């Protein structure tokens, strides 16, 4: 059937099959974990190179270096405003619905060793300052570890160098641009394995944690899911309308990436493809290259909602009363600890541990209450993070006056490139006239 050739349909089938296997054959489902992990590793091996090529070429082709600084400043301002809104929403919902009330858990009965791994990571991060975290000891080491912020810093510096030596570096610029096209072709090849990766990850999640765990902490899960959906519809939807793009057409355009994130529980699995799609939508390469990778560390809207709700859930479950000023103090701490995540499963738990350790009122051992459902929460958390960063890229591009909202709406109404990408004969990314995107961009400049 022709419909089965679409990637999003294949991913849906993979997710459904994973749920069935995980529920009826949990042991087999747990054994499927390597399928999801391998798919994520295949994508992660390309992420740093894709970021380097996209950012450096984008900056090299900008009219002035002042524009780079302007985009960066607008990006940080947007991130701070929206993530703070997400934190406040999570705080308000947890206070209104009280998802942890009535559990009456004695903190002394909780096993603090269960969160020892996350406490160790917090201590390791605290031992290094921000500059040490963002500036690598070596460029090769940053690429090898996959540290997005360190790679982004080097890519910006390299792009500036290309811009300053534009006449002498034309050949190098062309090579990097052609390398970027080749990397995107590899990404398209790997994405054909997305249904298998989604199947393995979903089978593991359902098989490992089952339905019993979901029933025990069902109210927290429902509250978090509903709050996240409302945040997407009301907050991000409103921002989308301001940018001139409808939320639903955008989600439909990104449906494949949303399903892959749902299955793998990590936004890193779709970063290269998301960058390409936003460029096709009309966002300049420089804006995409600066906003999206930075957002993976500093614009985690889903993680912000998660951190406030789970913090108050643990407080309510352990009967730890928090005054208004103590909650405002918690919010202030979260404005710092919610930044710097890597966009991968488990990063939010480290941030939660850092928050409770710094706040020093809510028992850190209470994190054991949510360990069993963190993977389930992380699925929607990652989806909100991805949508938030896609919207942020469009907003900054519109803010820069470099985004044609009318053309984007027409594209979303009938995006021919997306259809072409689903056809085997166009996996190389060639345009309809047979020329490569790189050639077309070069001759349009």
Measure the end-to-end span. 42 Å
How does the helix and strand content classify structurally?
Answer: mainly alpha
- What's the CATH H-level homologous superfamily? Sodium:dicarboxylate symporter
The main pleated sheet reads as: none
Proportion of beta-strand residues: under 5%
What is the percent of helical residues? over 70%
Q: Mean pLDDT across all residues, rounded?
A: 78
CATH architecture: Orthogonal Bundle
Could you spell the SSE succession in H and E letters?
Answer: HHHHHHHHHHHHHHHHHHHHHHH
Could you tell me the radius of gyration in angstroms?
22 Å
Low-confidence stretches: 416-445
* Count of spatially separate domains: 1
CATH class: Mainly Alpha
Number of strands: 0
Total helices: the number is 23
> What is the CATH fold-level name?
Proton glutamate symport protein
Q: Which shape, going by the Cα principal axes?
A: globular
What does it look like?
- With 445 residues, the chain is an all-alpha fold.
- The protein has one domain (2-444): Orthogonal Bundle (Proton glutamate symport protein).
- Helices cover 74% and strands 0% of the residues.
- The protein has helices at 7-24, 26-31, 33-60, 65-97, 116-126, 130-134, 139-145, 148-164, 170-191, 194-209, 212-216, 218-243, 247-253, 255-264, 271-281, 285-298, 301-317, 324-337, 347-359, 374-399, 405-413, 416-421, 437-444.
- Helix 4 (65-97) runs antiparallel to helix 12 (218-243), helix 4 packs parallel to helix 17 (301-317) and helix 5 (116-126) crosses helix 19 (347-359).
- The model is unreliable at 416-445 (pLDDT under 50).
